[in-house]
Model the fold of this input.
Amino acid sequence: DVAKGKKRFYEVSWKNKKGEVIHFEGTTTARLGSNGKFISTRCILRDITLRKRRENELKQSDKKYKTLVETLNEGLVMVDNDDVIQYVNKAFCEMIGHTEKEMVGKRANTMNWVDEDGQKLIQEKLRDRHKGISDAYELSFRNKAGEKLWALVSGAPFYDENGKTAGSFAVNMDITQLKQAELLLRQKNKELNTLIYKLSHDLAAPLSSILGVMNLAEKDVHNEVTRNYLRMIKNSTKILRRILVGFFEISKISQATVRTSLIDFDKTIEEVFKSLKNDLLANGLDLSINIKQKKQFYSDKTLLHLIIQNLTDNALKYKKTDQQHPSGSISVKDADHGVEIKMQDNGIGIPNEIHDKIFDMFFKGSESSRGSGLGLYIVKCAVEKLDGKIAVESKKKTGTTFTCYLPSLAKSN
Done:
């Protein structure tokens, strides 16, 4: 062919003196005489070693990528801008119960994997991908057999050579067992809360009767030793009643639906102080109030009352026994989209090493504590129910400051 005047293109590889392989791209043409007859060939070689190396690296990279994707435990699906499935890996096929052939080339929303709400969520996420947004969300599926699955979906856009969005991919982690365990746990917690609520309610009346009988017995018994025994029984019964009341409140918080209304902090704090009037007088605790909140604030009044009441009660329980002027303050001020509530006291304080334990159920900061160990746990439960946060600053013998942030919630209908 060369002799007939045609060009020939080819690639050839040789080893140089060092034994290294060098790749060439060659072009061979014929040298013809004036009479048009073939004289010789002319070869032009161009070193393409670097290009071949890059091509080989790209092939290796592509091979590793395909191996990684195919051996991935999570299901991977890729769609173009029209929601047409471009690729699914083996794990996704196994998860969803369809073959690759049944899915590739079809619009994802025609596969009937998800219900109407799921379709709306997917369409919303696809719009986000067009905007370059990546995120993760939970989605329920139905596999080919009709079984319900749950997946944690991590989605992101991918781009063409011009940097424009070409589609999106989603990595689907099967969390069905986790969701089933969560459902079972919620059911068990509901049963436990119902039991606690019933026990707390049913035992309250007998305990009140026992305390009433103890009060009557104290009046009729004159032997001091016997009177001391009666007082011990009475005090133990009071502690048990406080624990039951605490459980009752925890159960109510857990099961309650948050009902918001416009909060008047002056009135709410006044109601709390009124309910604790006897304890405040008995302990000589001087509490000041400083309310700087100006913006309207919506929250659940009952839960807010519990928070302030238990924080105040905590200041009462942990005042210094030898203190001449136990005091504290409660302040409220506007914060980002909510309020900041601070409860300060000059009591015995909390050592640094137990700061992370004080909100645990039944934890007492002091061996001599008269409390049930539920007060601050109730505060934490109520704060979390209202989507808030609480923190503590304290050192031993220097008093304590609790700072509680609560967001303003949507007004209940």
Notes: The chain is about 40% helix and 25% strand. Residues 176-220 form the longest helix (45 residues). The mean pLDDT is 83. Residues 260-407 form a domain with the Heat Shock Protein 90 fold (CATH 3.30.565.10).
